[in-house]
Structure formats: C-alpha cells, structure tokens
Amino acid sequence: xxxxxxxxxxxxxxxxxxxxxxxxxxxxxxxxxxxxxxxxxxxxxxxxxxxxxxxxxxxxxxxxxxxxxxxxxxxxxxxxxxxxxxxxxxxxxxxxxxxxxxxxxxxxxxxxxxxxxxxxxxxxxxxxxxxxxxxxxxxxxxxxxxxxxxxxxxxxxxxxxxxxxxxxxxxxxxxxxxxxxxxxxxxxxxxxxxxxxxxxxxxxxxxxxxxxxxxxxxxxxxxxxxxxxxxxxxxxxxxxxxxxxxxxxx
Length: 250
Hints:
By secondary structure, the protein is of the alpha/beta class. The protein contains 7 helices and 8 strands. Helix content is about 35%, strand content about 20%.
C-alpha cells in the first residue's frame, strides 16, 4: 500500500510538471498589439514573413544590402514580439534584420536557424548575430560547428551570455553584451559570473532601469523585476547603443 501511495504521488507530480510545461509552451509571450501595429504601419520599412523568419527591410536601401542582422528570440517568446524594437534599429542603421522563428518558440530546438537566412541572402557578406535570453545563449552554440563563421563578424548578447568559454578563444569577433539593471532573470552576481565567459574585447554595457522583458515588446514577464524606465525610453537607449555598434561592423 505504501509503495502504491508513493508511486501515485510521483505520478501526480510528473503529470503536473508535464501539464505545466505544456501550458508554458502553448502560451508563449505575444507582442503588445499597439507596438506591432505601429511597426507594420511604418512606411520606412517593409516587414515580410518568409516562413522560417521575419524580414525587416529599410525602404531607404538604394542597393542590395551587404550587411545584415540575424536575431534569435528569447525562450517562449514569439518572433513577432521583437518586430517593433528591431524596426527602430533597422531604420537607424539602414541594415535589414531577420528574426528567426523557433519551433515551440525555443531557440534550443533550432540552433542552426541562421543557416536558412544566410543561404536566402547571399548578397550579404557581413552578418551580425544577436539573441535575447535563451536565444542569446544559442549564439556560441551555432558558431561551435564553424557554420558560416567567416561571414559572422559580430555578436550582440541581450540579457544573455554564452553557455561556455568557447568565444574566449575567438578574437576575431566583435561582441556587445547588454543587460538592464532591473533584470529579474539575471542577478548582478550571476551577471558578473557569466560575463567571465566573454572574451576581453567584448563591450559590456548596462542600461539603467531596463528589465528583462524590455528587450522585446511583449509586456511583463513572470519572475522579472519592474522596470524603472518606460518602454520607449528603454528602447531609445537600446537602439542608440546597438546602432553605434552595428555601424562599426564592416
């Protein structure tokens, strides 16, 4: 009887855990409607769904782009949730942005999503890869296999860090690491420890008052801290920093 009781309790816990996980996967963070609509209405860019990714093209481009940005979304956050802030970057830099769509909205399930984007855009010779949270952690995983490495010129980590020390031996990549001081997902202590995985040439920048979710446009996130700056102010500072970095990449 005791064994049956223990087995029953374990079974209930397993079912509960599976149900919780399925609920999370089935209810990813979605874009705030007003920001998504504002991006789609912006005549300065063209936003196109290419199936496996979303393409943001600045309409001011006079010739075919030779530089592009690939972005990996955070875990359980839809690709559409990042359209608004990346639209601002695309306009400011005159560089196209490609936001990868991930299976079940988890970058770990398609680490090589960049392959298709790069193959579809052979005119682009210099790529900057960026990722938020889980998406950022997958950047070094993508590079480990040496895939398209000569074309990858720079990385932008957003509230994210590499999984290991792989990047410390690659001095050819230019790297920008961004984190908000109100990030509830990454403590200050953890941030300092994780930053040790970055190479010495990495530029590390804090955005005062910005939280974890403000790297996208999907509203509040469970476990995050409350931001002390508005979304608009956070994005204004974020886009300025990112744009300056992108302009450095040749």
